[in-house]
User: What shape does this take?
Amino acid sequence: MNGNISVFCCPVCGGELNKDGKTLRCPSGHCYDYAKSGYVNLLMSQQGRLHGDDRPMVRARTSFLSRGYYRPLLDTISAVAIPHLSKAPRVFDAGCGEGWYTEELHKILQSNGFSPESAGVDISRDALTAAAKRPFGGEFAVASLYHIPLKDQWADLIINVFAPDCIEEFSRILKYGGIYVKAIPLEDHLIELKRAVYDSVYENDVVIPSYSGFELLSNSILRNIIHLPDGETVKNLFSMTPYARKTSPDDVAKLEKITTLDVTASFSVLLYKKV
Assistant: This one.
């Protein structure tokens, strides 16, 4: 691919975006400036109220993931995807956050002889500030999963780790025969952490989705116990979850008393093929 052409397309007219210094421009004259960290904002103005993860959540997730606690999940995602990929796959991370999965999957593919091209979008500017600083060469944009700035049938692989999905958009940007890998938490995921914080604890509701135009090829179940060795790691895990936004200060304060914790990490990795 021409190094002066972005993987992304113009969110207004769908035109090709050419790199012009610190700006992306399309033939129709629409232009988008890169942030200092290296991402580009392609979020449509009417979606501006969306903000995603804030800076503390991003810091907590970056610290937690960098220590490898969710490496088994990453390894399963790569293991189910690799048999279905060509040698130069285009990989899209839907809801990429701080880019840990994007970068690590890119490196796994390279180590297995692939030449991947990777892109990710998220609605959080704070998350993409961290993602765009990763040195592996992926492209990142602030954008909504309901209006993805990629050409039709661009991707060979879409990954989605705990993010919302818009299957109509995923189907549009995914090639026929391409694969979609979705990771979801299972019923008892982080159950011990919830018991440490809440008086009443409920298991997660789990629904295995079916999508028109997609065939479910496999459902890989992972369960393991993660040892959190200190209070900071416990707080990081809690802070990177949706619970952090909807928990009372009194319940959050209970985390201060926890110095170590063993928690269940349980996931389902769903592999779909576009047919």
Q: What stands out?
A: The two ends are 27 Å apart (CA to CA). The mean pLDDT is 94. The chain has eight helices and twelve strands.
